[in-house]
Amino acid sequence: MKKGFVIGMFYLLGLLLLSFGISMMIVADLGVGPWDALYVGLSETIGFTVGTWVFILGIILILLNGYLMKKMPDFLAIITIFLIGVFMDFWLLVAFAGVDALTMPVRAMMLAAGVIIIAVGITFYLQANFARNPIDSLMMAIQVRTGKSLAFSKTVMEVTVLVIAFLFGGPIGLGTVIVAFGIGSLIQFFITPVTNTRKRLTNETEVVL
């Protein structure tokens, strides 16, 4: 019971931090990751909130992943995309409402903080190994269908989404480059202490050094 509660808290806190970091980058307006740029571009071009597009595209990806993997779609992932979408709209429409005309130093600090918070959020969320984000599943599906490496599959996916985001006028800039090339290293940096914290809280004896 305790282990399930702790892991559930890591999952929720991870999604909360992830959505907060992304929202900070959006408000900083110095560029965001390819998928987030696509959500913002669709929101500004077509309408609906950013969180709504997280949910809409997430549903499409869940169905697409099921088709590519030739198995039942992972409908549990709806929980993850729903929570991310709700959290994103809360941060952008409530917490950061009216925040504009920021100076460049403030925007730069928000960008840096946003990237770090995203990485921490992902490491927390990964502890649960539950209802994985359909974007991660798409990378795996591409890898299975093409027979290429995960690195190749991720690159193809990210570049494709980046082009689409650009066509919809998504916020592409310095932050996009940082997310593309730096987020992996940050996740690697945080994964060990976060995993060890989770194991201590769940009374697991083995820790990662």
Can you describe what's shown?
This protein has one domain. The mean pLDDT is 90. It has 209 residues and is mostly helical. Helix 1 (2-28) runs antiparallel to helix 5 and helix 5 (104-126) packs across helix 8 (174-201). The protein is globular, with a radius of gyration of 17 Å. It has helices spanning 2-28, 34-45, 50-69, 77-95, 104-126, 134-146, 150-167, 174-201. The chain has eight helices and no strands.
Task: Detail the topology: elements first, then pairings.
Blueprint: H1 2-28, H2 34-45, H3 50-69, H4 77-95, H5 104-126, H6 134-146, H7 150-167, H8 174-201
Helix content: over 70%
First CA to last CA: what distance? 27 Å
Count of separate structural domains: 1
By DSSP (H or I, 4+ residues per run), the number of helices equals 8
Given as residue ranges, the uncertain stretches (5+ residues, pLDDT < 50) are none
DSSP E strands, number: 0
Please describe the biggest sheet, giving its number of strands, its sense, and whether it closes into a barrel.
none
Q: How much is the radius of gyration in Å?
A: 17 Å
Strand content: under 5%
Question: Which H/E pattern describes the elements?
Answer: HHHHHHHH
SS-based class: mainly alpha
Question: What is the structure about, briefly put?
Answer:
This protein is mostly helical.
Question: Characteristics of this structure?
Answer:
209 residues; mainly alpha; 8 helices; 77% helix; globular; YczE/YyaS-like; transmembrane
